[in-house]
Amino acid sequence: MEIVQLSIDNKKVVVEKGTTILEAAKNIGVDIPTLCHMKLHDMNIENKPGGCRVCVVEVEGRRNLAPACKTECTEGMDILTHSVRVVNARRTVMELILSDHPFECLVCSKSGDCELQTMAQNLGIREVRYQGEKNSYKSDESPAIVREMEKCIMCRRCETACNDVQTVGVLSAVNRGFESVVAPAFEMDLDHSACTFCGQCVAVCPTGALTERDSSAKVMDAIVDPKKTVIVQTAPAVRAALGEEFGMDAGTLVTGKMVSALRKLGFDHVFDTDFAADLTIMEEGTELLDRLGKHLAGDKDVKLPILTSCCPGWVNFFEHQFPDMIDIPSTAKSPQQMFGAIAKTYFADQLKQKREDVVVVSVMPCLAKKYECARDEFKVDGDPDVNLSISTRELAQMIRNANLNFEALEDDDFDQPLGESTGAAVIFGTTGGVIEAAVRTAYEVHTKKPLPKLDFEELRGFDGIRSATIDFDGLPINIGIAHGLGNARQLLEDIRAGKSQFHAIEIMACPGGCIGGGGQPYHHGDVEVLKKRQKAIYEEDKGKVIRKSHENPFIQKLYSEFLGEPCGHKSHELLHTHYYDKKKKVEI
Amino acid sequence: MAKYKNHILVCGGTGCRASQGEEIVQNLGKVLEENSLENEVQVVRTGCFGFCEKGPVVKMVPDNTFYVQVTPEDAPEIVAEHLVKGRKVERLLFTDPETQERVSESKDMGFYKKQIRIALRNCGFINPENIDEYIARDGYAALGKVLTEMTPEEAIKVIIDSGLRGRGGGGFPTGLKWEITRKVEAEQKYVVCNADEGDPGAFMDRSILEGDPHAVLEAMAINGYCTGATKGLIYIRAEYPLAISRLKIAIDQAREYGLLGTGLFGTDYDFDVELRYGAGAFVCGEETSLIHSMEGLRGEPTVKPPFPSESGYKGMPTNVNNVETYANIPVILLEGAEWFSSIGTEKSKGTKVFALAGKVNNVGLIEVPMGTTLREVIFDIGGGIKDGKKFKAVQTGGPSGGCLTEKHLDIPIDYDNLIACGSMMGSGGMIVMDEDDCMVSVAKFYLDFTVEESCGKCAPCRIGNKRLYEMLEKLTEGKGTEEDLTLLRNLSNVIKDTSLCGLGQTSPNPVLSTMENFADEYAAHVHDGKCPAGQCKSLMQYVISDEKCIGCTLCSRVCPVDAITGDKKEPHLISQETCIKCGACYEKCKFGAISIQ
Questions:
Q1: Which segments constitute the 2Fe-2S ferredoxin-type domain (chain A) (predicted)?
Q2: Beta-carbon separation of B455 and A93 below 8 A
């Protein structure tokens, strides 16, 4: 290891060669302000275009100021991070950025959570001396994501997320100079692009330029409508992150308080998407064993590996980018949609209500879910199985609107029958969780023996692509896992090239899985937040009495009373779907 | 090869072609045939002669008669008089503005006297579309010498010792750049010729490529051998169709002669060149932007280091040099480092090509030794200021250079002197201004360009230049305050200090240099609401003198916005609210009754 010695603010520092000034300064407790820079440590995700110029520092002997995020330390450097020259430059640049930004903080959804606002505060900007023309753009409202590009500061984080991390390639800088903005090609709306609505652009946007389409008002409208029975389902990752919105530590599980809050908000039935996750395992697991059985029997037409299909961002991705492979993923609907289908049939029957009088609301860590529930194939006579999907952040806002002291709420339990779930369902919320849940059930169904251990540590972690071979009592099953669509692409290309050795692959569009979803509280580039959420999810699993989906008594009851058998006729009708070639829909 | 007694060299540069140069060639050919002279006299399309002010230029060889402002209709007379009767066509000779005498040879013209042509050595001399003519002028001899007699290190040493610095603007020592690229180990390296000449009004590189494309190809091959690259790329803007077409011909011919391709000069060295087209963005002249553009990415810069020499095209070590830099290479290797370094100043060796433009009598392309003064360039070569007006300023270094004034005229031009007085060498644009030019407006004009050409990546350049422009606009409208001047200076300094690439790091130069050198003019705009040069429309008004006006009504009839009222034979009046200051009345009035105040 080569080391270099330098001085930062007259303090001697020794760092490894290749360390940036920003990192070196952090080592000695000097926080150089940054705006466009974002680094998710251990996940190989970094955005550092060196564009905002807020992190500039003075390097002795250099003509110009140097961006700390991009400049590597060299031997003998003498750096000042807050000289008069630096502070004046930093503040002036900040004023310039603000001079092309709407002063709408009071009504901006990002207010209080906006990195630009925080930076302006930290730098003590009290007036913007440089005023002039501001850019204006037409606002773009897709079913999931709203783009208000007047608020864009060209940090390019969304571009990095969309291109480098997700390899979706929808967002890039267009136009030049003052008119530069990040947009889909030809400044088309997102809805007309190959956008997967994964929401990772929203997750990293420092300002209010990219936000979710807010459906919370519609949810309240439904709740106050006396003719409607409003059912809510909550995804597993929500309970591991919602507390952050109320100042609680990342990784605090708030399942009970969340249920309590939902009830106080006026939902008629508070259910759990985890119930549907168990159902998904029944269907997807059966499908896996079916394909595997045929494969072992020598059927050459059977498609392997089977790919999970519970992530709508991922479904959009392969429909747009790998339409030749749409027969490979499992046909099982996502838990959100399975829940909706069961709620509007089985449960509506129990309530003796017509499906159009039942409103199903989902609380999701995800923005693609908003798009998913609006898909035509998930509607019956125009009535969607899931009427509205709101994000974790929108739920938090509803709780604040209702004046609830979240932290002080008593823990409460989900309603039955669609509120019961197992530990296998909870871990759907993190990368590797779905496949681990599937293994727990598929193993026991296939071998007809109880699992010797339930925790498959080999499937867990944060590496972008992971693999493990699980011994199904003498039958080695090769499992692949990818999170982040860029990693998914690698596995898909292997399959296309006939190089894949896997029997089953789990794919989640968002880095970290649903815990890092586009609808979650903002992590602001702190990867520890995601790690803590993941830990919480596994803790919840561990604390559950039942940890295998097929042992969920309400699932067993659902099959015996209503569905018949997994992958049977009724299941196919209600719980399975098909995919479309969307490549041609990309209009240029 | 046919042997001709006489050659008629017709300038085939873009400028002269736009003035019917091609028709001159056609007509000359026709007339020669009619006189049965087609086997004795050859008409040659050459590259640019440089004296664009007087184009189209036609030169007779061997007697070197230099005809200016020739038209296609002059062809019969040139053939009949000059070739048949042996008499010069007097009316087509250049007239010395001072002595009013006809001058027949270029060496006796003020425009050429102080020039030394190294980079432009073949421009206006050979047919750029014929490789034999280049070879006849020692073309490819340097490549042969380097490949067969020298190691890469020896050749690099010659370039280092010559003191040649990058002619694209940065002035980085060329040999050193080659050495750095050579030392980086990689499977594949590239040499790139930067032909993305973007300064408004500059055409040095275009002229070299149009007039002497093989010089660039030869230099790139030498560069490739020295750095260990086997692939060369020329990044050229698509707006240079003639240069592109001549480069393509040159590449084909060089391949045919085995001067590009595999096993050059019987050695095991392979080298070939490809063209890459740019869409004309100014920022793509910056080498990291250029490389991104070649890779098919958005043309925007990245922070250096890493420098292209370490990680450039496709992440491989890439040596980027400008066209003019390359044009110097073959001669240096043939004539030696000592010869080259004997020309120029202590730290800037050789010559520099400038595109001389603006309010000078002789607009054109010139090449002078480093150390020539601005006064020599503007007054001796440029022939002084047009229409006998007073010199006010000269802007060097393209849109991001500074405006220098009277007091800088005797400073020897080189990289370091220009930077020391707040401007820069740039790629060699030189625009002369006279007393009618408002320096605030000049600064605004250049900012307009940089605002347009900023790539938008970094905040200070993207937004800061826009704000600079808006503040300058405010000043030219007479709405500026003293505080604005303070803000203008601070913003200019911050943009320079914080911008990501050379574009933003230099774009405020026109503002800072004019504020420094013409502080009074800024003060007049702010404090007195006056534009001393009378150029800022908002700060002037047209006024009709009651005494001089006879009421002829002509002014009111030409006014496009009906701002002028008055009865016949009565003094007229201009409504200042309605007037758009187009100046139509001022030009029409026969009695001098309308004045600008």
A1: 2-85
A2: no
Among residues B409, B434, B459, which one ends one of the domains?
A: B434
Helix spans in B239-380 (H): 241-256, 287-294, 323-335, 337-341, 374-375
Does the active-site annotation cover A549?
no
The per-residue pLDDT of chain A, averaged, comes to 95
pLDDT in tens, B125-171: 999 999 999 999 999 999 999 999 999 999 999 999 999 999 988 88
Regarding whether B450 and B576 lie in a shared domain, the answer is: no
Which region among A336-340, B1-5, B213-217, B466-470 has the lowest average model confidence (pLDDT)?
A: B1-5
- Closest Cα partner for B357 from B387, B385, B390? B385
Nearest Cβ partner for B500 among A51, A72, A153 = A51
**Same domain (yes/no): B567, B521:** no
- Contacts of residue B284 in chain A, CB cutoff 8 Å? none
pLDDT digits (tens, 9 = 90+) for A147-194: 999 999 999 999 999 999 999 999 999 999 999 999 999 888 999 899
Burial B341-354 (b: 16+ CB within 10 A, else e): bebbbeebbbbbbb
**Does A514 qualify as catalytic in the annotation?**
yes
A417 or B169, greater pLDDT: A417
CATH number, position B592: 3.30.70.20
Are B153 and B10 contained in the same domain?
no
Inter-chain CB proximity A154 and B452 less than 8 Å: no
The rounded mean pLDDT for chain B is 94
Alpha helices by DSSP H, listed for B421-550, are: 439-453, 459, 465-476, 482-498, 502-506, 509-517, 519-523
* Structural domains counted in chain B: 5
Give me the mean pLDDT over the A562-585 stretch: 91
Asked if A579 contacts A326 with a C-beta cutoff of 8 angstroms, the reply is: yes
| Closest in B467, B490, B500 to A99, CB measured | B467
CATH T-level assignment (fold) for domain A98-213: Alpha-Beta Plaits (3.30.70)
Q: Residues spanned by CATH 3.30.70.20 within chain A?
A: 98-213
Could you confirm whether A369 is annotated as catalytic? yes
**Smallest CA–CA separation between B325 and chain A, in Å?**
25
Angle of helix B152-162 relative to helix B174-183, nearest 10 degrees, comes to: 150
For A3-82, which CATH class?
A: alpha beta
The whole domain housing B18 covers 6-109
Write the ipTM. 0.93
Place of tokens 């036609």: B58
Contacts of A178 in chain B (CB under 8 A): 451, 454, 456, 462-463, 465-466
Which class in CATH covers the domain with range A217-575?
Answer: alpha beta
Q: For residue B77, give how far its alpha carbon lies from the nearest alpha carbon of chain A (Å).
A: 53
Q: Is A551 a catalytic residue?
A: no
